[in-house]
Write a structure and sequence with these properties.
- α7 (112-129) runs antiparallel to α8 (133-144).
- The protein is mainly α.
- The chain has helices spanning 3-7, 13-28, 34-46, 50-53, 68-77, 82-105, 112-129, 133-144, 146-159, 168-178, 181-189, 195-203.
Length: 205
């Protein structure tokens, strides 16, 4: 491969996250199940898109940050398979926000411990409702070792210097409530909003 060909090789998001998670696990001396490692990569990939972290409301058609209590209530009272989707959204978003925005949560009424409790409960529910034994074991590991998985994401966050430049939860709130182009660009800059999604959206304006 020539030097010019090497220069245009781009690492995919999956490859990037596999590498980052591998480094974090090695640094933290944490050896989760192979299925859990694979699942964690999927969580990071999915939440590159802001609409996956903050789903669109069926009533208004706009993105909204549903509270954990609201998600919990809906998950408990929805029929299958809708309830499984809601438990997964509650579990994964609790994990992701705890890992990437833990410092911000510590300054709020709903703190990091609350997110950890809700995330653990949600993963336990997924484990109990899952028929496949390997998948059930994976969800159980996320439930019982939730703080360790949070540490993995926190390590990745700190390594990328994401937490050191302002309160990103407030940035998300601003983007959702106002559609601020500046907030959107800052989220893209920090890798928390997919750039291709932004281009696609802007091209439709």
């Amino acid at each position: 491969m020539s030097q010019s060909e090497k220069a245009i090789v781009v690492e995919t998001p999956r490859e990037f996250f596999v590498d980052k998670i591998g480094s974090a696990l090695k640094r933290l001396r944490f050896e989760p199940l192979p299925a859990s490692r694979f699942y964690l990569v999927g969580v990071l990939e999915r939440f590159m898109f802001v609409h996956n972290l903050f789903p669109t409301s069926e009533d208004t058609g706009k993105a909204r940050r549903e509270t954990l209590a609201e998600l919990y209530f809906r998950a408990q009272n929805s029929p299958h398979p809708k309830s499984l989707d809601l438990w997964r959204q509650l579990a994964d978003s609790s994990l992701y926000i705890s890992g990437f925005f833990g410092d911000s949560l510590n300054r709020k009424l709903v703190d990091l411990e609350y997110y950890a409790d809700m995330g653990g409960v949600a993963y336990a529910a997924l484990s109990s409702f899952t028929n496949d034994q390997e998948t059930a074991q994976m969800y159980d590991e996320f439930s019982t070792r939730f703080p360790e998985f949070v540490d993995v994401l926190t390590y990745i966050s700190q390594d990328a210097m994401i937490q050191t430049n302002g309160d990103l939860l407030k940035l998300y709130d601003r983007y959702l409530s106002t559609g601020s182009r500046l907030a959107e660009e800052q989220l893209v800059e920090k890798g928390l909003l997919n750039a291709d999604l932004q281009k696609s959206k802007n091209s439709k304006m």
